[in-house]
Amino acid sequence: MNKKSTIRELAAAAGVSVGTASRVINNHSNVGEAVRQKVLDAIDRLEFMPDSAAQSMRGGATRSVGIIIRDITVPALASFTRAAQDT
User: Fold this and answer.
1) Considering the entire predicted model, what is its pTM?
2) What domains sit in the chain, N to C, each tagged with a CATH number?
3) pLDDT per residue over 11-24, tens digit each?
4) Which of 11, 19, 72, 76 is the most exposed place for a label (fewest CB within 10 A)?
């Protein structure tokens, strides 16, 4: 799909409510296996990716870390930065 799908479009494609789609995305246990599979199939069809900006606005956390390094050519600092990216 060319444009980014919304959770509303995902829910409609799966034939479930937005709340149910959200519970599947967030891996809550109170969703039946058949319904969970319908949502997961729709995620694959639509190539759905949750909007991290929307999630951070709603939850107040970005899961991002800023690193300010004076000279990235220093091997120890470059290694530290790479390790932080991989985490």
Assistant:
1) 0.61
2) 7-86 (1.10.260.40)
3) 999 999 999 999 99
4) 76
